[in-house]
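Anyone? Bumping this.
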Amino acid sequence: MNPEECTQGCCGVSRRRTVSDCFDRGLRRNRAEPFAIVGETLRDANGLQAQFSLDIENGIVKAVRFKVTSCVALTAYAEVLAEEVEKLSLISAIAITPQTLIDDLEGIPLFRRDRANLVVAALRSAISNATLQQSGVTNEGRLHLRHATA
Amino acid sequence: MKVAYIFATQRHNISYVLAKMILPQLEENRHGVDVAGMFFFEDNNYVLVKGNPIGERLNKVAKAKGMLLMGCDQCCYEREIADQLMDGVPIGCFPDLYKALSGNMPDQVITL
């Protein structure tokens, strides 16, 4: 079975959203080859990197993959974001904020929560590229990225 | 000489080796070497949880002596205690440990 398809509890155990569980799932997603629609590889002040790629069908996010630096909090936030975005429209997906991730994933110490900004910015970059591709616009000067904290 | 301790195995390490050997010696300034830092793996991280009596004593010594205490981040997340550690005690992985020790490099690293 494709691990990305494992969205239900396995072995009768309910699927939980803990940092450790999200990190484990995120590691598997992190190893998958990117989809065709790829965002920019963004880097934060700590040298951590994140890049998202999307599989879009009829304006809906069908599947998400990412490549992130092997930091537990970063990978866990990326996984939560990927899980939340799937099946959403691009407009709904771009509305997810770092604070949403922070609220949805308890247990990350305060000094690691800045990782949420990086993954949201990286996802928005991928969504912007998807939007450009869908509209046929090639002029990157028209690209408008919302700030991740907005 | 300056050392760093890595608490990698579980068994009797914290309650005996740390709590009954190393920590009392540090408290009494007779450990024999300076300790640059301690890094904790697996269940050993529970000693870093706020309110742990051994951990609170250790943290007091660490603050007085400028000694680094750090928990393995994956171990802490797995045990859901990453946000419950004593104030000022960070979690991290090897890059964080090396960076934190780089300003106070140990001569020897002792794995227990």
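Late reply, but here is one note on the structure posted above: The interface with chain A takes residues 73-74, 77-78, 80, 82-83, 85, 90-91, 93 of chain B (CB under 8 Å).
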